[in-house]
Specification:
With 229 residues, this protein is mainly alpha-helical. The chain is rod-shaped.
Length: 229
């Protein structure tokens, strides 16, 4: 019996290049695809009553997984953030223009500086939120492609061995290569979102300190921290 090896390491999922996935029998192919994708095929694609499950079902769902459930909502949020950024940037331009005309060390200058720092912090938050939803959008698109490939490979798995042509085998091999590339891309995007969540608390604290510095700012004694750094 020939063993087809699928490995997952620090570099992601890899296939054994010496093996032909196109030559696998139906159930072997189904199990291999399930291992690569990290979850079993749906019952409609598998002839087995006990499809392969590679990873246990998780009960806890992170915030980014909830946010990424609906692609239309992601795109709507990106549109909203784009409008918000344009509005805040416009307000900041006006404040900066007024600062240029304000009397040095005046109450008006202090007020405008505080407003400028507040708007910088708000812009940073919008940009960061936009980056977050951009990654979510990419992740959702990758997941859809993975799902489509799984269905295609599921259909290919029902081709009888005696009817399988060399072109069929090559097509299956190509689809497996594509599946591995997509799964590795999904892993990278997921890691970005995990890191984003981990950094949120630190950035919130930084923004709080930035606004405090702006509120206590007085020319010649203290310089405000830039929220954009």
């Amino acid at each position: 019996m020939i063993y087809y090896r699928i490995q997952k390491n620090n570099l992601g999922v890899t296939l054994d290049r010496a093996k032909r996935y196109g030559s696998m029998r139906g159930q072997e192919l189904i199990e291999s695809v399930a291992k690569v994708a990290g979850r079993a095929f749906t019952p409609s694609l598998s002839t087995s009553e006990n499809p392969v499950s590679v990873t246990p079902t998780r009960k806890l769902i992170s915030q980014w997984e909830k946010d990424g459930e609906n692609l239309e909502k992601i795109q709507a949020e990106l549109n909203r953030l784009s409008k918000c950024l344009a509005q805040v940037s416009g307000e900041d331009e006006i404040i900066c223009s007024q600062l240029m005309k304000a009397k040095v060390s005046s109450e008006e200058e202090e007020r405008l500086l505080q407003e400028h720092m507040r708007l910088l912090t708000e812009k940073d938050a919008i940009v960061r939120r936009t980056e977050y939803f951009n990654v979510l959008e990419q992740l959702r698109e990758v997941e859809d492609k993975i799902s489509n490939l799984q269905h295609e490979l599921g259909s290919a798995s029902v081709i009888d061995q005696v009817d399988k042509t060399e072109d069929d085998k090559k097509r299956i091999d190509r689809m497996m290569d594509d599946l591995v590339a997509l799964v590795n891309k999904k892993d990278r995007l997921s890691q970005k979102l995990i890191s984003h969540e981990a950094e949120d608390e630190e950035i919130d604290e930084r923004d709080r300190l930035t606004l405090e510095a702006a509120a206590n700012f007085s020319r010649g004694s203290e310089q405000p921290l830039s929220a954009s750094k």
